[in-house]
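Minutes, project check-in

Agenda point 3 was the complex the collaborators sent over. CS summarized: two entities, 641 residues total, and the question is how they sit relative to each other. Sequences were read into the notes so everyone works from the same version.
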Amino acid sequence: MATELEGLLRPKVSDAPPYPAKFMQLANGETMVVRSVERDEIPLLLEYVQPLIKVERDFYDIVAARVFAELLGQYVHRIQDQYVLIGQINGELATIVNGRTLSPGIGVSLHTIALRRGLRIGAHAFAAKMEYHMDYLNHKEVMIVAESPIGFRRFLVEYNLEKRPQVIHELGGVPSYALTKETFEKARGTLVVGRRPVPKDLLDKAKAEILPPSDPPVMAQDLLAASRSVYDSTGSALRGLRSKQEGRVK
Amino acid sequence: MQEVYIIGIGITSFTRLDFPLYEIASFPAMEAMKDCGVTEIDHLFVANLGGGRINRSTGLASAVVDTLSLTPAGAESIENGPASGASAIKTGFMAIASGMHNVVMVTGAERMREANALDATEFVATMTHPLAEQIYGVTLPALAGMFARLYMEKYGVTERHLAMVAIKNHHNAMFNKFAHLHQEITMEGIVDSPEASTNNPYVAEPLRFFDCCPVSDGGACVILANKEVAKKIKKPLIRIAGVGQATDVHTVHERDNPTDLLAVRKAAAQAFKMADLKPKDVNVAELHDAFTILEIAESEEVGFFKKGEGHIALENGVTSLKGKLPINTSGGLKAKGHPVGATGIGQVHEIVLQLRGDAEERQVKNARVGFTCNFGGFGNNVVCLTLVREG
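CS then shared the predicted structure for the full assembly.
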């Protein structure tokens, strides 16, 4: 009975085509491999994402919380037609992106989270998932929203996405924006880049182990660096921050 | 004329600071007072450009002087575009040199990230000529792009040279905990690789993303004093030995030769003459590299290198941290950041650290003479300072 019930709770088996891994060079000269992940790799991703739920900075908290839930949903078979791609630098987890198929021809972009800041790491990963939707899942449109101003600028503005106010996005229930074939083709080669095939040694290293991010986003510990001054008798903002950090106020 | 010394310094991180502008101006001031132990100030000058427009905050000096409990000291704000910081130091210098005051605080602050990048760029563009430039949509990156194109055609500077400036200054910023950008970049990653155009797209051709400084919030402060006060402070004596300021034709295309930065040339010459020093005497310099091309051009105009040879010195490593004349050891505007009103004071903060021997991993050996160039508008109002360590 329990097995039968579990069968009812699980989504249908997906027959989505695989995403062929690619690589690109970053501004600092390092190489990032973008590839899809297997189900048995997800627990490790959950472990690396979980600390970010506490990072109240640039909306990392809400994005990480939702990514955690979506990854967990995939791992315990509770989400339909989801895919997860990751970016790795020297084996380290640098970014996670995910999305899913909403209906034939229509995709939904869920999240892009960078576990290492800068270098367009998140932007390259977002571009890879758009590529997956358009070139491999053959979607005509991808519905997209952003939770952070950075995401809004990086994705909705840079790609010049079309407004779809009549489409309510499943993420937060807000009006959607859409990437179309036309807007995607404009971005191909400029925003959407990368090389294939990935050299064997590079891909083998990436697949061997997903290493934890060495420099993950953290709460700003010392926003003003030098300003921890004994003369600060009237700096209300700094006092507030300090009180919070010292646990005197919640 | 009284001699003028820098006795205290303070700075915030140049980054995004979610604090009111007056607090950003006050924090480094507190740190500067802590640095020298002086809490009685005769007069306060506050450098800022965008408070009124971006932060809806005017009369900044009045707010800061009260925040710091320095009332009834005199206080006023100084605005001279991106050269506001050095202009405020120059004004403080005059106040002490004249004998009117003995201790003057000069603090600068900007909170530009309250506006989005496009609004910030548009705001900065308001310093261009209203009728000859601004109404045609000219921005500072656009002017710098045109300037760079002319410079490249005339002197053989290439995009690789521009990238070398960015790579050098990003590297220097790795050693500066107050810098906005802590990220090494490489020639391969920003110029040579197939993905370079995505990593480093054109902003105003030939200038790319990594040729432009970030939009930063931040504050910096110096406390100036006469010799009598300075001698009581247990710090190396750092004297402002030379001050120079010059202006140029406002509209860039109306200049006789748009690739000549005459105001830089003249301001630097004044600053060296007053100090009775030559460019060859300088051990370390902070030049206003809001765009990479400006570091190259200014390094020539201030007299470090012959006109058209700045990029060759760069190529040969002369201006690197271990070179003969390190330029922008802090990371410069390019990587340390450019909170406009604080920028010129931040430059002086770095030189004081270097002359005191307190610059840690980026310390230039035996630095005795330092130089700053704070570039207002597009080179139409420039302030240069020569600093000397005594004793």
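Noted in discussion: The first strand of chain A starts at residue 22 and ends at 25.
Follow-up: revisit at the next meeting once the mutant set is ready.
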